[in-house]
Amino acid sequence: MKTKLSIFLFLMSFCAFSQELPPIVKYPSTTYGAGNQNWMISQDQNHYVFFANNEGLLEFNGSNWELYPSPNETIVRSVKVIGNKIFTGCYMEFGFWARQENGKLKYTSLSKTLKNKILDDEQFWNILNYDQWVIFQSLNRIYIYDTQTGGFKIIAPKNNITKSFRTKTAIYFQTINEGLFEIESGKGRLVSNNLILQSNKIVNLFSIDEGLLIQTQQNGFYKLIGTALTKFSTEADSELAASSVYSSQLLSDGSFALGTVSNGIFILNNIGKIKYHISQNKGLSNNTALSLYEDADKNLWVGLDNGINCINLQSPIQNFVDDTGILGTVYTSKLYNDNLYVGTNQGLFYKSYQSNDEFKFVTGTKGQVWSLFEYDGTLFCGHDSGTFVIENAVAKNIFSRSGTWKFETIPNQKGLLLQGNYYGISVLEKTNSQWGFRNKIDGFDYSSKYFEITNNLNVFVSHEYKGVYRLELDRKLLKTKNFVKYNTPTKGKNASLTKFYNTIYYANKEGVFKLNAKTNQFSKDHLLSSVFEKDEYTSGKLIEDNSKKIWLFSKNYIHYFSLSKLSSQLKQNVIPIPASLTNSMLGYENITQISNSNYLIGTTDGYYILNLNDLSFKNYSVLISAITTNKLNENSENRSILKEGSFKYDENNITINYTVPEFNKHINAEFQYLLEGFQEEWSEWSAKSTVNFKNLPPGEYTFRVRAKFANSPLEDVAVYTFTVQKPWYLIHIALFVYLIFVIILARFIHKAYKSYYQKQKEKLIEENNLLLEIKELENEQELMRIRNEQLSKDVDTKNRELAVSTMSLNSKNEFLTFIKDDLKKTPNDGYRSIKSVISSINKNITEGDSWSVFKEAFDNADKDFLKKMKVAHPSLTPNDLRLCAYLRLNLSSKEVAPLLNISVRSVEIKRYRLRKKMELTHEQGLVEYILAV
Fold first, then answer.
1. What angle do CA 315, 316, 320 make, to 5 degrees?
2. φ and ψ at 424, to 5 degrees?
3. Cβ 349 vs Cβ 360: under 8 Å
4. Which tens digit of pLDDT belongs to each residue from 622-643?
5. What's the pTM value of the predicted model, to 2 decimals?
């Protein structure tokens, strides 16, 4: 058991190699979309980088990758940019690629002219240039191409060629078992056949003042001065011998980058000291470095056996990456007594500052370390297990009742400290030069991860799930008199609280709030809150450093504020490093000032050191890399990026790609564009390097794109002008035809409308005439109606007159009958004398005469009635017609009886018989029927 524990402690103490390294940008094959292996690297004048890849020629412009398959679908072994051409070599084929107007590369074969001279199964592993010549090297021969004449010379050594090299003044090559040769006058001249050069493969050689510096695969470096070969020893000789060097590169600062087969990359200074050793367990994607190349920005590109890496050698950021997981997530750090301490989720580690020593584990601190605090010459460690005092890299536990978050000094009480614990706040006291726990402050038992104390002993505590509290402590620091919970500002995820220039600040997703010391109320600080605008909030962590800067972290930037030298206003500084790249744990961001300009920032897999003084970058250029158009639901077509574009009306879906060819890991370029003719304002800043415009209307457009890097705008603006043509039916000729057609149509419509309105006019006149005629007819009908009414009235009048006459006649007859009857009562002796009178009376009451007079008057008043009745009822007798006439005058039976000289009973009988003859139903009235005829 003791043996296992010893082994564990040994591993914890020595496994974490602690060299801070430059940032490494990793590009796996899934990112660039090509083969795993990359055999050679080069760069053009636009800073685009090219790779000889298993699948073909691979191009990277800083934003987008593009693969150009080799012409015969074989592995591209070599690539070299010379002028504006990219020369490549592969299996039994070599030539060059030239950029077309649309920005794409087109291949031209040079080996076709030598097809009969190229050996079977020959591959071209290296390309060099010297003056006007391009050298293609295979393992068998060297082909020298004259770019001016287009001719070739071929050098065919006796033995196979291992590799070819170039210095400023010469071209060299090595052959197996023969030595080193120099090309002179198109032929190989032996420079040295030293046994060492015969038996050791040369990886590279470099020109030095004394002669040549030769680097071998297994035995390190040698100097060749004249014919003398001497060893040049380095710190890495033993490791290089065990690792086998495959590639190398002389860097611009005089250093040597050496790529090995099994142990990553070694970077040595010009005297052979190791500057960096970067392997797979220190951040490299793979331990086999097939190719190395230093670009124009002094980045070191590494073509690996499985992927591509870019090492930012000039970056102001140095990384320590713990891929083993032994160190863990860094929560806090402190420089104390020339030792760098880092507190992680695995415990407390330390090493000598500014050394390549290994991190050592501080025994007894296994578990989360939340904070490190130096006070009065003592280093305190806030730990999940309580509080530790660190002395000479040894941890002594002074409090173990609960975990400890942080520490704060108490105003005017030097021998006391407040510590925030999992269950409230407690007091540490220094007694006899020893620190120890004194008491817990009663009355407040909530977790106190973030707290600050004021001069009047008010303590402000931020609790992530409850909000902000204010505690009033008694003078003896034994208890809180009372505590108040603030309604505003509210609680918030990853919220925090700190003191800056004696003012307490609280930050959550709603912004940063500043405490008013007089009112003890918080109000929003708009300058600091601007950090979290535009959905930038990830964490409210606030940190004050030793030089009085306050640090904040957002989604895309790290911010720090300091007092302006000429005013009391805070000055904002922005470092464009996004949270996704810093790899910090949200809510536990930490930054520690370890020197005037160096800051250590903890991450989930180590830490990185940022040098503020070196945060300056060259002025890059923004370039338009590709323009494509497409019709609806059709494939895209590449367009020229060198001249103005002119697109058909239905090719109005336009995609524009642009880039800043930079390859920094932690700082990304941001872009802003404007399409004049379509937009009035520039777009928002974005890291997206492409934009698509859909269904652009016909017109002239000017596209402008600008960029900023490290929050500084770049000087140039890329411009592209294009036109979306009008459809054929909107061109000038078509418009002229439309105009003629419109004129003709207008003329036709005018005539049609004129004819229409003429017809309408005639129709209206005809309708008006018809209406007049109808009006006249209506008037005539009205006149006839009036006449008929008048006639009807006349008939009624005559009927009344006839009735009156009939009644008069009836009265007369009655009267005469009465006289006659009275005269008849005269005695017989007088009868003779009145007989003549009676005879006269009988003549005057003769019915025939009365009827004749009545009939004549009735026919005048009601013509054709009697005829109608006779026609309707042929069986009617004259007496029946006479009764009908009387009934038509609406006379009653009593009134009819004298006229017929019969009794009323006889009249009723006559009426009954008349109904029978007329065959009237029981429901029909006789008088109503007669009146209706």
1. 85
2. 115, -150
3. yes
4. 999 999 998 877 788 899 998 9
5. 0.75
